[in-house]
Amino acid sequence: MKQYSHAWIAFMAIKRLEETAVSNTYKSYAESLIKWFKDYKDGVIQGAWYPDMIIKDMATSHVLKFTPIKDGSKGYFRKLPSKYLFYEYGKNSDLKNYSYSVDKDNNLTDRCESIAQSVIDNLKMQTSEEKGSPIAPNNNHIATILFMLSHYIADAHVPFHCDSRQFSEGKNIHGKLEGVWDDEIKKYFLLDKANERFLYNPQGYSLLNKEKESQYKNSFLKKVEDNLRKRKFSATFGMGNNNVWDFMSAICQHSYLLSYSFIPQGYDHTNVTTSNWKKLGAIGLEDLNIAVLCDAIDSIAKVYFRIW
């Protein structure tokens, strides 16, 4: 994903926690996370972009690329929460009948688990140290790590990050897809580019451009918001997924399935063009956009909440 998409999704994950019904047992945790995030929200656009701008581990830690193997063996796929659109699109995929290989140099799931644990460790250290301790991590530091984590989680939901076909080559369909999301966000939400932040509405979230509010009703971004409001929030990662690593493994597997639902077998960078790429498979571009953004927002909300 591109810079503004990463930041917008992180905001939407917190908005999801604020708008959803969290049980009374855990409500105080959600409320404290929401307040904490809003206190440091000015750093989201930069922090969520650090993995691309500063760390630059795109070739290994932003991807987990799968290749189908038609040797008669059936693939093993972890379960996702049943309300996930990734689950709905992937459950009947023909590729579930095939095994697969995973690029040995890719470690996106490990990266997500390690950063999640780093946030937890830093929060624990901060709690245990007295105020003013020179070795206690400060909130800005923890916020930056948390924003970075959302980047890696979101990237797992980008189908081409989990598909060994080279869609960054040829017509760069990978870049065009991510550009669609970023362009839509920049079109409808107001930015303070000089200070690298969104302008905010009274609730503290990205401010919608009032002059384009009527058009926004037909945007896939509005459909993402509507879908999430109808989806009951659950902190579970799906049956059998006990930690962030398990959960992100499931996401990457289904992201791979989604990629082939969008651009089917028989196509790669040599025969996908700028005129046919949006309508080759069982699902079209708009359905893909909604699935990717909805599930990415939900996943970040789950991981943030469980870390907190």
- Write down the overall geometry: globular
**Beta fraction of the residues?**
under 5%
The helical percent reads 40-55%
Describe the largest sheet. Answer: 2 strands, antiparallel
- Please identify, by name, the CATH architecture: Orthogonal Bundle
Mean of residue pLDDT values: 95
Provide the CATH top-level class.
Answer: Mainly Alpha
Question: What strand line-up does the widest sheet have?
Answer: 1-2
Low-confidence stretches: none
Total of DSSP H or I helical runs spanning 4+ residues: 13
Radius of gyration: 19 Å
Q: What structural class do helix, strand and pairing data support? A: mainly alpha
SSE ordering: HHHHHEHEHHHEEHHHH
CATH topology descriptor? P1 Nuclease
Overall number of strands: 4
What is the H level of CATH, i.e. the homologous superfamily?
P1 Nuclease
Intertermini distance:
25 Å
| Number of self-contained structural domains | 1
Topology, pairings included?
Layout: H1 3-19, H2 24-39, H3 44-47, H4 50-55, H5 58-61, E1 66-69, H6 85-90, E2 99-102, H7 108-128, H8 139-156, H9 173-188, E3 191-192, E4 197-198, H10 213-216, H11 220-230, H12 244-262, H13 285-307
Antiparallel strand pairs: 1-2, 3-4
List keywords for this structure.
308 residues, P1 Nuclease, single chain, mainly alpha, two-stranded antiparallel sheet, 13 helices
Task: Describe this structure as you would to a colleague.
- There is one protein chain.
- The protein is 54% helix and 4% strand.
- The chain is mostly helical and 308 residues long.
- The chain has a single domain (3-307), classed as P1 Nuclease (Orthogonal Bundle), CATH 1.10.575.
- Helix 8 (139-156) runs antiparallel to helix 13 and helix 11 (220-230) packs across helix 13 (285-307).
